[in-house]
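Thread: quick sanity check before group meeting

JM: Hey all, I'm pulling together slides for Thursday and realized we never actually wrote out the predicted structure for the chain we discussed last week. Dropping the sequence here so it's in one place. If anyone has concerns about the input, flag it before I start.
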Amino acid sequence: MIYNMLQNDGWTNLMAGLGKRGTDKTESTEFSDDVLLTDEELSALYNGEGLGANIIDAIPDDMTKAGWIIANDEDRKIEKEMKRLKAVYHINKALKYARLFGGVLIVIVTDRGKLSDPIPVNFGTIKQLRVYSAARININTTDIISDMKNPYFEEIETFHIQKRIGGTMDVHRSRCLWFGGELCSDNGNMDLRYRYWGLSTMQRIWARLKHYGAVERAVANLMLEFNIGKYTVSNLAQILSMNSVEALDMIYTRLEMINASKSIINGVLLGEGEAYERDSANLSGVADIIDRMQMNLCAVSKLPATKLFRRSPGGMNATGESDLINYYDEVSTKQTQILESELQKLVNLIGQYSYKSKAEYPITFNSLWEPTDKEKAETEKIKAETHVMNVDRQILDIEESRTIQYPDLPERDAIDFNLPEEGVK
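JM (edit): ok, ran it. Output follows.
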């Protein structure tokens, strides 16, 4: 039997008001829904906020920069077709749109068949690739397939895309490469668009980015008032008591004369009873505040400071290498989870007409972490020393060590050291 039990535990202090709603301020802290950013706001943010654009672009750029290896492409026909179609450019663009707008489609345009029909077996060749963000794709509940026997059950089989020249076009799912946004809750109260595509990457970062922008602007305004001049004018109260335009003109004229004298003689001309002082704003602690705000923004964007702010690592013996390794692990995970299946679909379609075969052409992503020449040399040195040790201890003979260390070198002719010199080959 299951009992519904109310858990009522925690630290309380009625005298101090600890743990009591109304007296303990922390008990009134609650999480509430934030307003979802519109496509117009996201576009403006990407177009006008360099830091926001960097957050969107960084991961897609690193997902595609190192490229990939295509197996069974001996004649490099698939690679050449990928270049002709500008596949890397379109995939990179699609990944950025997916992060910005929460979803994107790459439409595969072929020689044969209508876009609204499933891609045929003999589709000819791929003519071009077109990228459309979720902002251009209308989704209704009637578009969701309810037939359990349909391979697109609870998915969308036909997309309605707004063309750039006006009007809409229907595109079958089999002709698309699909990329979603950030995972959101499967709450029925969420709009269908977000439950299907996902959220924009900027949605979870927006609050921190907004706070960081406010701090930067506050510092900029503070710098404009870094030096404040204070003027003491004789009989100021008497002049103001006149309450006339002439009195104000007298004050402004005097201030202009003081400023003019500063420019001409690099000094200030003062009369009897007048004084001039300069106060400077105190900027101590501002750098620490900005640094902490940057750390918060790096945390929610999952980008290291070396990537997001293009800043060198700080602190003693800091290289930023561990941050970059963790970041590249994150990028590699996204390659596997987001990019691999759709890219494999495109490669297989190209291989189908390039080699006239439906064979598989598995892809393997190149390593994102490229060691320096010094690191490569140190690694080779360690390997060589290990092989020398194995030979000295008779764990391996020379030829076995050579084969292991340099497998691509051709085998040498055996040397019989008992032969005379002229017999040695």
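AS: nice. Residues 153 and 187 are 19 Å apart (CA to CA). The chain has a mean pLDDT of 84.
JM: adding both to the slides.
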